[in-house]
Every structure is written in structure tokens, then in C-alpha cells.
Please model this.
Amino acid sequence: MEYVAPDNHYLESWNDAEIKRGSYSLMQPAIRPLFDTRQFQSSLLKWSGKDVDYHKFIMKNWEETLFPTQSLYTNFKSYWEHTLQEGIFQVKDTSNNKLKFAQLDINKTLEAITQNKKSSGIELQVYEKVSIGDGSMANNPWLQEMPDPISKICWDNYLNISPKQAKEMALETGNLVLLNSKLELPVYILPGQAYNSVSVAGGYGRTICGKVGKVVGFKISHLNTSKYSSVKLEKIERRFDFAMTQTHHSMEGRAIVREANLDEYKKNPKAGNDNKHEYKNAGIYKEPEFPNHHWGLAIDLNSCVGCGACTIACQAENNVPIVGKKEVIRAHEMSWIRIDRYFSGDENKPGVVFQPVMCQHCDNAPCENVCPVAATNHSSEGLNQMIYNRCIGTRYCGNNCPYKVRRFNWFDYTNADSIPNNLHDPAGMTVDLSRMVLNPDVTIRAKGVIEKCSMCVQRIQEGKLNAKLEGRKVKDGEIKMACQQTCPSGAILFGDLNDKGSDLFKLASSDRNYHLLEEIHTLPSVSYLTKIRNKKS
Amino acid sequence: MYVSPIREPLIKGNKTYSQITKDIAAPIEGKPGKTWYMGLTISLSAMFFGLAMMAWTVWEGIGTWGLNRTIGWGWGITNFVWWVGIGHAGTFISAILLLFRQKWRTSINRSAEAMTIFAILCAGLFPLIHMGRPLLAFFVFPYPNSRDLWVNFNSPLLWDVFAISTYLLVSLLFWYMGLIPDIGTMRDRITSKTKKYIYGILSFGWTGSVKHWQRHEKLSLILAGLAAPLVLSVHSIVSADFATSIIPGWHTTIFPPYFVAGAIFSGFAMVLTLLIVTRKVLNLENYITVTHIESMNKIIIATGSIVGIAYMTELFISWYSGVEYEQYAFLNRATGPYWWAYAIMMTCNVISPQLLWFRKLRRSFVFTFILSIFINIGMWFERFVIIVTSLHRDYLPSSWAMYKPSIVEVGIFIGTLGLFFSCFLIFIRVFPVIAIAEIKTVVKSSGEKEPKNETL
Model:
């Protein structure tokens, strides 16, 4: 006999954890169980004959074990409430256990690695993508639609092949190959992939999965990778369409990502950033003034690792829709922030740069003056704003944006359109349950309007209101953008350019600071810091 | 007026006044032939196909087109500019040639003006249909509202709204005003009672009295005066859509004169396409003669050469500017993935009209007809090249993309061709294709019968 015992979601459950030695934490439900489920632990209690609520069970346990270890609170109720509010309770660590690095013989390890027998043919390596990992995230449409940091391909896995090998086999990106006469895989020519080696991501082609991840990409789990490490490739005369968000990989010699080497930077902090043009007061019009705040961002190209976490953070924060593979192929992706990746130099040993690009919130914005209905305009705090209700969708602003960050709602992705039966929702994001992912502070957009990065205006607004309620000025660092909050390397910084003491002001006046395409005098509020490479020139 | 012994008469066949009326009224009074019905069926089918595609666009969204995040305008705006350009020949012929007293225009002005109106109708559809939310298109009008919302007068797209609507209004008035005496003639000639009644209403009670003629002449001149600057301004404003932007390949100060010349160039080509067929089908060979074709060909070679010089100037300036984006934009036009569009444009617009330096060719109906089709195609590609090849590779290579039209966009274009030809086919059976009253003045001044009385 088989049983199905559906568990609660963690947001529906009580729980506790010892996150590290001596640090205890509590989880409490944020929502009532949506479905007819029972928490796993409650089920265990029930099955073991104890008819007690798991919440009460935890409380009792804490009362008996942790409450006595402290002396601050005399009654358990206040202790419990305080800990719930804090989220953590720390016990003084009395043990003398000091952690040490393992004393491993590095040479032995190295030997073990290098002694791997050399395969004669082409070696196959299976890796995990940063987005869906081992495939457990395959049913997450955001992660499926997140372009791979290097290949900029989403909704697929593929065979990475070195440029040299591709030339030998007359392959182009998008060609199909037959792997060991069994598996058809599309090819991506990856600069920097070692010659005579190919790689493919696992976790794709899942057959038992939710609506989103089912049969996305190619299943390779049946390949025994140790057995198949030497593989045979044959070209197939068919092509495959990649959902690729960037199809041109060279900067064409343009000063888009400015970089310098460390020794150059040490000699001259302005290395790689010598602008020969007039920037201040170069236009015929007076530069706009922002008497109160002047919001801006600085992006440190030295810190950006290109992971793409910011793109997902933005998608979650700003209710950016998913469009699906077919639409990404048609360059209809909706991302408000993207990470441009450029290769440079020798294709067998390329230099790679990442550059997050969102709306640059230009103070002399080319998009603003071309909109016939003034649906996009400038705020008194330097933000380039979109008024969705006013937008009639001429896309003139998008054309005239030199950064190409404006996104048009090609179809009704969100079920907000007034015309019925035209929904395009490949990932089921408009069903009631999925809609719970929407951020209530941000409106969803209808078919036919332009949208773009708002510099998380809802967060700015919240920060300003909080400050106002407390009768003070907005503190530097108090407001954080979603992309900034999520960036693991702290590459994105938000702040007030008018605040001379702010961290942003320091970065904005740094020698490494520059604006993207500043020579066309769009006066962006977003700026970049040059990339300094740790190598000799 | 002095009659040149060398210059050929503008109308051949020693026509009398009554013969002229009879000849020109014949297509209206007679029954249309099989070819006309066939033509109309094809045109109407094309039109309805286009309408279906438009309905689909409104319903489903612009996503049904081939546009993308990089290329926001494609066939839609290409067609818009192409149709507006075509319209310019009509206004040029009726207004500017009137002011310059070019008498030969009387044989062609009526149909050219009709063509203008139909072309503007087709053109006007595109800005509307290419909007993401066409149901809210009225937002572009500066109407008073309780929300204090106002339009953006900095936007060239808004200038377009005024330019195109003014153009349509003035062209329509001019055309209709010119039609009134002829409608009066038709009212008097036609025998069917219902038709007589309709023509009666449409003629606004025209009696042909001296007072009516006086007012008619005066209004003609006033409207010609109003329309003449429009020939220059409308396409200048359309060009401002591109010239005021910052996209390399669009941001070009040469655009206004270049676009106006191109518009007249393409407009004359379309007039030739239509009239070479019409004169044959409607037996108007004596009214639209080889002299007319030659005169129009001369305008084609003049405007075509201006267009050619403009192309060269653009290339030179992009190199001379020293701006890397500008240089790349033009290099990419000629050698990038859309090189074929550039090659078609260059061949059709720059090389082919130069053949008209040969007198034999510019007086050949067959050659002129083929050439006019070439120019129609070439000028369409000019707009495609400007719009798409500039957008598809602009500043940041990360966003470079390609554009391929979908069946929906192609269908809408075919639909406007259907609309245009349906309108024209109906027009030639409903109204006199040649201004009867006006052409009679030409007979008097250049007819060979009364050469001694030439003192007009």
C-alpha cells in the first residue's frame, strides 16, 4: 500500500534550527496552509500517537532545554516572544573546540588530479548551471529564463565546444551533433573551452517535473560520465534555435567596459578611464538641477562576477514577466536589468567582462523627449519614470534608447489586458497560486506598454516615507535596490548623488568612475567603475 | 500665350470641348469591363486580408510582428514613410506646378491628387496600427481633460500627428474643390436618377455661373498656396522622427531635404505606374501623352539625382565626422547583414533613374513603366534601410539583433496596397480622372486650331 502525505511549505510551518553551534533560530509560518497539507513533523507526532500541535511541541522543547540556559528572562513567555522577534538565540559557547584547517598534503592531491589517465579522444565533462543547478530548480521559470552568465543562453543545455575544435568539425553555434551515435545535442562554441574537451550541463530534459521544467533541454543523466568521458562527435546537418539574449560577443573596440591592469592602475588611478571629451555643460541647454535628492547607482565592474542574481532579484521585486523560450528566441525577453558579457582577445584564451546594464536614468534622456504623450518623463529626484497608464506603445523611446534597456509588452503576459483570450503565459504565472509571487507594491503592466527599470521607485518611496514619519532625512544606505541587495559581491551601490557624505558620492567622484556612452551626453545617473585586472601589462 | 512651333501640343487628336467631356466621362457612363472587376476583386481581397491581419494585431499584440527589444520599428513605419512619400507627388503636381504655371499638369493632376489622398489613408493606418495600445490613440491629441494631461510638443511623433492630419485635410479639400465643376458636369450628363441625385448633392449646387467660377479660381489659388509649403513640410517632419533621434544613421541633419526629394521621386514613380496603365485602359492616350511621361521623367531624374547626392553626402559625412558609431552604422549598411537591402536601394534609386538621360528611354512607355516599379521598390527599401539597419546595430553590441517581418506585417502592407488600388479603381469609375474643366484651358492655349487667338 502506498501513501501520499503532502507536507507543508516552509512558509506555512513552524520549525527551529541550530544554524551553527550555539545559535538557535526559529521559523514561524507567514501564511496559513494553502492546501490540505500537514507538516511532516506533525505527521510524525500523529503517527507516533502524540496528539500534540508541533508549535506547542517546539515551545515545550525550548522551555525545557534552552530557556534554562539563560538568565535574562525570568518567564518563558517573554523569553519566547523576544526570541521570535530577534529570530535568533545564542548560547554562550563553552566548548573549547577550535576549528582547524585540515593538514592535507597539497602535492599528493595535485598528483592525484594530474595522474588521471589521459583520454585519447574528446573528453566530456558534465557541469551544473548556475541557474537550475542539478535540475532541482528546473521548474522555476525565473531561473530557466535567466541567461547563463557565459553563453547567454536560457531555457536549454548544450554542448560547449572549443573554437578550434569547432573549426575542425566545421561547426557553428546552433549546429547539432550526435554524441556517441546516441544523443543529439546543439553546439555552443565557447571561447576558452579547452581543445579536445566538451562540456554539457546536467539537470535538463527532466520528464517528471512541473509545468515549466518538463522536457526543457536535453536529458544527459543516462550518460555514465566516467564511462563516457571519452566521446565521439558527429555533425548533423540540422540547426537548433537557441534562446540567446546576446548574440554579438565583441565590444567592437568601443569603450563600453573600460579596463586597466593593476600596475597601470597603481601608477595612475585614472588608467583606462581617460576621457577626452567635455562632459560638464557640454550641451546647449542648461543641465537639470535636482535640489533635494538625486538618486543614482554605481556599478563596480571589478566586483561583478556576472552571476545574474541581480536579474532574478529584479524580476521578483518588479513583477517582470516570463516570456518563454520561443519569445526569447525572438528577442522579446522582458528583463529590466541584464548582464552584458563581452569576450576579448584570443578566442582560445579570451578575456571576459561582465557589465550589468539597466536603465541609466539619464538626466538628458533621449527617450523622454520623443514620447508623443509624455508617458516617460523625469522626476525632480533624477529618476526616469514610466507612466504605464499613459503609454500608447509607439516604442519610439525604446528605439531612441542608446542602452536598449526599454522593454515592450509584446503580448498580454500578465492578464492585465482589456481584450480577452489573448494571454501569453507559458509558465502559468497568472494562475492564482503563482500570482502570490507578485510584489503588491509594484503594478503589473498591460499588453502594449513599455516598461523598464524604475530604480525600485517603490523602495525609494518607502524609504522616504519612513524617514518622513520619523521626522528625519533619508540615511545613506537605508534604501537598497533589489539588485543591490542580492548582489553577492556588492557590485551595485544605490545612493543620493547630492549627499556629499554618501558612499555613492565617493564612488561617483572616484577616478575609476565613468558613464556608459557618456560621449553622447545623455547624463546618466548610473555610473560604472573601471575594471582593474590583476595581471601584468 | 505664345505657342512654340517645336513644342508638341499637350493634347493630341484635335479634340473639341464636347469631345473632351465625352472622352473623360466615358469611363463613368459606360459599364466597367472584366479586367476592372478582376482588378477590384484582387484589390479588395488584399484589403480584407490586411484588415484581418490588423484585427489580429490589435487583438493579440504587436508581438505578432517581427519586431523585438532592439528593433522597435520595422515594416510598419517603413510603409508609413513610403506611403506618405508617394502622396507627395499629387500635392507637388497640383500645388507647386500650378503656382509655376506648368500647364501640362492638367492631364495628370486629378488622378495624382486622388492618389495622394489614398496614399495618406494608407500611410495614416500605420502609426495607428503599430501602437501597442491603438485603442488609446486619442491620447496624442491635445484635448482638455480633467486629469491635466497634455501631449509632449517636443516629440516629432506629435508633429507627425499634426503634419499628417493637416496634409490629409488640405489635400482632400483641394481635390474635392477641384472636382466640384466636374461633378456638376457629371450631374448634368448622367441619366440614372439615383446617380443624378448623388452627383447633385456632391456638386454642392454648382451651376457654372461666373460668380461660382470666380470663387472657385480664388479658392484654388488659396489652397494651392496652403498646400505648396506642405509638400516641403510634411516629409521634413516625417524625417524629423529620425533626424532628431540619437541613433547613428538616423541622427542626420540632411534628412529634411533628402526626404522631400525622395518623396517627390517616389510619388512621381507611383503616378507613372498608375497613369501608364490608366491611359491605356480608359482610352485616354490623347490626353496623357508621351510628352507628359517625358516631363514627369525629367522630374524623376532631377529628384533621383538629389537622392543620390544625399546618399553620397551621408556616406561622406559619416566618415568625415570621425564618430565611430556613425562610421560603423554606414559601413554596416553597405556591408553588414542587410547589405542586400542597401544594394537594392542603390541600384533602384541611384543608378536606374540615370538611364533617363537617354531621350529614347524617357519617352518609352514600357521602359518608364518598368523603371517606375523599380523606383517604387527602391524607395521602399530606402526607408527599410534607414529604419532597420540603423536600429539593428546601434551603440551597445550586446543588444544587436536581426529583424525579419512576420506574415502579419507583410499582410498589413499587402492590405494597404489593396486599399490603395481599390480606392483608385473605384475612383476612376466614379469621378473624372482628368479635370475636364481645367484641361479645356490647355486646348485653348496650345491647340493648333486657333493659333492666332493666343492672348490668354
Chain A has three domains: 10-90, 108-244, 259-533. Residues 10-90 of chain A form one domain. The two ends of chain A are 70 Å apart (CA to CA). Chain A touches chain B through 62 residues (CB under 8 Å).
